[in-house]
Amino acid sequence: MHDVLNVPEIFGSDVFNEATMKQRLPEHIYRGWKNCIASGVQLPLEVADGIAEGMKVWATEKGATHFTHWFQPMTGITAEKHDSFISPTGDGRVIMEFSGKELVRGEPDASSFPSGGLRATFEARGYTAWDPTACAFVKDGSLYIPTCFFSYTGESLDKKTPLLRSMDEVSREAVRILRLFGDFQTKRVIASVGAEQEYFLLPKDLYAQREDLRLTGRTLFGAQPPKGQELDDHYFGTIRTRVSEFMRDLDEQLWRLGILSKTKHNEGAPCQHELAPIYTNANTACDDNQIIMATMKKCAAKHNLVCLLHEKPFAGVNGSGKHNNWSLATDSGKNLFSPGKTPSQNAQFLVFLAAFLAGVDEYQDFLRCTVATASNDHRLGANEAPPAIVSIFLGSELNAVIKSIIDGANYIEPEKSMLRIGVDVLPAIPKDTTDRNRTSPLAFTGNKFEFRMLGSSQSIAGPNIALNTIMAEELGKFADVLEKADDFDTALQDLICKALKDHSRIIFDGNGYSEEWKKEAVSRGLSNLPSTAEALPTYISQKNIDLVTRRGIFTENEFRARYAIHLDSYNKIVNIEARTMVDMALHQILPAALHYSRSLCDAVNAKKGLGASCQAESQLIGDLSSHTDALYSAITRLKEDMTKVPKEARAASQYYHSVIVPDMENLRGEADILEALTDKAYWPYPTYSDLLFY
Ligand code: ADP
Ligand code: MG
C-alpha cells in the first residue's frame, strides 16, 4: 500500500508561485512584481532585491543550497550552472546570500553552446536574464530560475526569447481583432498549449547492454521479433506494476513542481506510454515539457528503468511523438477557437479560423521545418505519424460551413442563398467528432488545433513560435483591412470568404497515409518535404525571413543561426549513428556470427568422423558465410562513404540523407539477417524480444 498522497497540499509546493509570493513577500515588493508582469516594464532593483531575499529564505527552508539560472539554448534541451548561496563573513564562517542582481542576471560561461555563428569565441560570453513571468522552483537542492539566454550584443541564443516575442505579437494582433468586435475589456490574448508526451520505458540492465541505445537513444540493429504490436494489446492496456510505480512517482514529482500532469496510459507499441498535462500558456507549457522530459529520465533511473524519448527507438513498432494542442484565449479565459452561440461570436470565430487556415497554407514549409530532425525523419510519412505534407483536418461540420461560405451556397435553410457571417448562426460543432482523423498533421478538435508532427524528444518552442507568428501575421493583415472598412459587415464577409477560398487547399479530411493523398497534394500545390535534408533549406526562404523579421520574432541573423544549428545537428546525429553502426558491426556482430560459424564447422568436423549427416550445419554455414561477406562489404562501403562527406553543411546534409542513410539501412539489413541465423547464446546484445517483451 502507498501512503495517501494529499495532492492539493503538495501541488506546487516546490514552486515560488504567485500564492507563495503573495504570502512571503512584503506587500510593496509583491505589487512591484505584479506591476512589472502586467505592464512588461523592467523590474526595479529594489523589487528584485526583495524578491531574491524572499526566494532565498523560502528555497533554503526547502533544503536548497544553490541557485541556478535555468535556460534553453538552441540545442533544444535545457542548461544549468549551480552557484551556492554561501558568502564569507570574513571570520571563517559563511552566510546564505542572494541578491536581486543575481536573480535577474547571470553570466554563465557559455562558449560551448552552439550559437550558429552569432557569437565569435572572443566575445563568447552569454548572458541570462530572469523571465519574471515564469516561476522559480526548487529541485534537487537548487533554486531554479527560468531565464532567457542572449549574447553580448543582445541577440537571442535560446528558445524562450523568441517564444515570448511570438506570444506578445499574436496577443497584440488578436486584441486588434477583438476590438473590432466590440471587446474593449481584453488586455491580452494568451497562446495556450497542452503537449502530450510519448515515451518508452526499458529495463536498465538490458539497455546498458546495447551500445546503440546508450550512444544514440535508438536501436540501430535488431531483427523483428515474432510478435510486434499487431495484437494492439498494449494500447490503453493494464499498466504493469513496475511502470505504474514509476508513473506514480513521476506524477508526485511533477505535481510538487506545479505541473498539471493529468493523463497517463499505455500507448500503441509495447513498452510505450504517454503523459498529458492540462494545458497552460505556451511559455509555461514549454518550460513544463522540458521538466517533464528531464524528470521522466531521472525518475526512470530510480526505478531501474530507462526512459527513451527518441522518436524511433525500434523499427517495426510505433515511434514516439508529441501532440501539441494549441489555441488562443483571452485573459478572462474565453477560447477564441470556440465556435460561439451568437452570430457575432461566430463571425469572430470564423476570423480566427480563416487566419489560421491562411497562415498554415502560406507557411507550410515553416511549420514543416520546425519538426525536421534526424530522428523525426523515421516517423513522418511512415504510416504511424502524419505525413510530411502539412494539411488541416476540420471535420465535416466545419467543412460544410466553409463550403457554404465559399460557394455562397445555402447551408442552413433552403431559402437563404448563403451563410451570412455575423447574421446567421452556425450549426453546433461537436467537440469530439467521432471521425477524428489520426492521420492528420493538424487537426481541429472542437476548440483547439492539435499539431501532431512534433517529435517526442524535441522542444515544443519552435513549433509554437511558428504557430503564434503565422497567426499574428494573418490576424494583423485582417485587422489592417477591417479597421479601414466603412461597412464592417460587408468587409468581414468578403474577407472571410476570400481567405477561405484562397486557402481551402490546405484542408484535407481524408487518409493522410495514403499514396493518393501524396499525388493529390502535389496537384493542390502543397509542398511535400519528406526529409530533414529536403525541408531545412526552405526554412531560410526569403518569405520566412521576411515574416519573422517583420514580426520582430527573430533578426535575420538570429534566424539564420537557428538554421545553421538545425542543419549541423542533423549532420552530427547521422554521423554518430553511422559510426556507432560501424563499431557494433565490426566489434560485436561480425565476431558473433564468425564464432558461431566456427563452432558449426567444428561440429561438422567432429560429426564427419562418425559418418553422420551434416546437412543442416552445412547449409547454415553457407548462409552465414554469404551474409558475413555481405555484412563486411556493407561495413566497408559505409566506412568508405563516410570519408567523402562534403565540408559545407547543406551539401553534407544532402549527402548524409542520400548516401549515408541508405548505407546504414543496407548494413542493418545484413546484420539483422545474421541475427536471425545465429544461435542466441552467441548474440552480443539483447534482441527486440528481450527488450520489448521483458
Ligand atoms: P485528446 O483530444 O488528445 O484525446 P484532450 O482533448 O483531453 O485529449 O486534450 C489533449 C490535450 O489538449 C491536453 O493536454 C489538454 O489540456 C489540451 N487542451 C485542451 N483544451 C485546450 C486548449 N483550449 N488549448 C490548448 N490545449 C488544450
Ligand atoms: Mg491527442
Question: Can you describe what's shown?
Answer:
- The chain has 694 residues and is of the alpha+beta class.
- It has three domains: 7-157, Ubiquitin-like (UB roll) (Roll); 166-554, Glutamine synthetase/guanido kinase, catalytic domain (Creatine Kinase, Chain A, domain 2, 2-Layer Sandwich); 570-692, Four Helix Bundle (Hemerythrin (Met), subunit A).
- Helices cover 49% and strands 14% of the residues.
- It has helices spanning 7-10, 18-24, 27-39, 45-61, 100-104, 160-180, 204-208, 211-216, 241-256, 282-302, 343-362, 364-369, 396-407, 461-484, 488-503, 515-524, 532-539, 542-550, 556-610, 615-642, 649-677, 688-692, and strands at residues 15-16, 66-71, 79-84, 86-88, 94-96, 105-106, 126-130, 136-139, 142-151, 189-203, 261-266, 272-277, 280-281, 305-308, 321-330, 392-393, 442-444, 449-455.
- The strands form three sheets. Strands 10, 11, 12, 13, 14, 15, 16, 17 and 18 form a nine-stranded mixed β-sheet that branches. Strands 1, 2, 3, 6, 7, 8 and 9 form a seven-stranded mixed β-sheet that branches.
- The two termini are 25 Å apart.
- The model is unreliable at 409-417 (pLDDT under 50).
- The structure holds adenosine-5'-diphosphate and magnesium ion (MG).
- The site of adenosine-5'-diphosphate (ADP) has 15 residues, from strand 10, strand 12 and strand 15.
- Residues 192-194, 196, 276-279, 325-327, 335, 445, 447-448 line the site of adenosine-5'-diphosphate.
